[in-house]
From TrEMBL:
Record InterPro entries: PEBP (IPR008914), PEBP-like_sf (IPR036610), PEBP_euk (IPR035810)
Record Pfam families: PBP
Keywords attached to this entry: Signal
CDD domains the UniProt entry points to: PEBP_euk
Protein name listed in UniProt: PEBP-like protein
Domain of life: Eukaryota
Signal sequence interval, chain numbering: 1-18
SUPFAM superfamilies linked to this entry: PEBP-like
Ranges of compositional bias, category Low complexity: 220-247
Region named Disordered: 220-248
Lineage of producing organism: Eukaryota, Fungi, Dikarya, Basidiomycota, Agaricomycotina
């Protein structure tokens, strides 16, 4: 019975990761980054060698949202950790370890980004599960340095750009990074390009981004990424090790999976995902 159950779950996960509901190309992503001024605001240049599939679960509507570059999203849609997969025709990445980052360069507002960049996620020691050709799931093997922080742009702000970037992790990363950044380092005034240069990450292999503005019913008492940055840190244990606010979800490379199917896969596998 257990063997049959595992076969069933494996089949579900493989079917999920093999589907890609968008026709976005690396050239499309590169152009979108330039049009949105992520180049040069955040990156000096960007030449992706693969696609970063990002899927959010809206737990209010029980629907999934696949991020295409520049997608406008509500705070409700991206309140939970995204599920992420990497698509590339370069098979040499199959055994690679990665670093995944998410930053907001527009805090507290795009016109006055004095707190930017906000480090919304920094997760090293990520490996792949599945086929690169169809979308290999990113699996975190250790707690994140900065666990996922949901987008919370302040009242009155224009939408913020939230940018996800995937880097190849160098062999000495774990020994070098503690001298530069740790879980107690403020998440504000971060610079992903400078960090990548310091750690020898090289250029990002893939990326994606979305836009989120304040909710229509937000009030001045609503917490924001910039206010959180001034008082909170991003613990490597706690939310990364099992926060009840943002529960782990099973990473997928598609937008059309039913909530029921996803729940079954999550419950049976218990896969930790960003």
């Amino acid at each position: 019975m257990l063997t049959q159950l595992l076969v069933f779950v494996s089949t579900v996960v493989l079917c999920v990761s093999a589907q890609n509901s968008t026709n976005v190309t690396t050239a499309d992503v590169e152009q979108a980054f330039t049009t949105a001024k992520i180049v040069p605001d955040v990156l000096p240049s960007f030449n992706p060698v693969g696609l970063l599939n990002v899927v959010f679960l809206d737990n209010v509507t029980n629907t999934t949202v696949t991020v295409t570059p520049g997608l406008n999203m509500t705070r409700e849609q991206n309140a939970l950790r995204p599920t992420v997969s990497f698509v590339s025709n370069m098979t040499t990445f199959a055994q690679q370890t990665f670093v995944l980052a998410m930053v907001d360069p527009d805090a507290p507002t795009p016109q006055n980004p004095t707190s930017a960049q906000i480090r919304h996620l920094l997760a090293p020691n990520i490996t792949l599960n599945g086929s690169l050709a169809t979308g290999a799931v990113l699996v975190n093997n250790t707690p994140a340095i900065s666990d996922f922080l949901r987008p919370t742009p302040p009242v009155g702000s224009d939408p913020h750009r939230y940018i996800l970037l995937l880097f190849a992790q160098p062999a000495n990363f774990s020994s070098v990074v503690p001298g530069i950044l740790n879980a107690s380092t403020p998440i504000s005034n971060f610079n992903i390009s400078a960090f990548a240069e310091q750690l020898g990450l090289g250029s990002p292999l893939a990326g994606n981004f979305f836009l989120t503005g304040p909710d229509a019913n937000s009030t001045n008492s609503t917490s924001t990424a910039s206010s959180a940055a001034s008082s909170a840190t991003s613990p490597a244990s706690g939310s990364a090790a099992g926060s009840t606010t943002n529960p782990p979800s099973s990473a997928v490379g598609m937008a059309e999976l039913s909530w029921t199917g996803l729940t079954v896969a999550m419950g049976l596998l218990g896969v930790l995902v960003l």
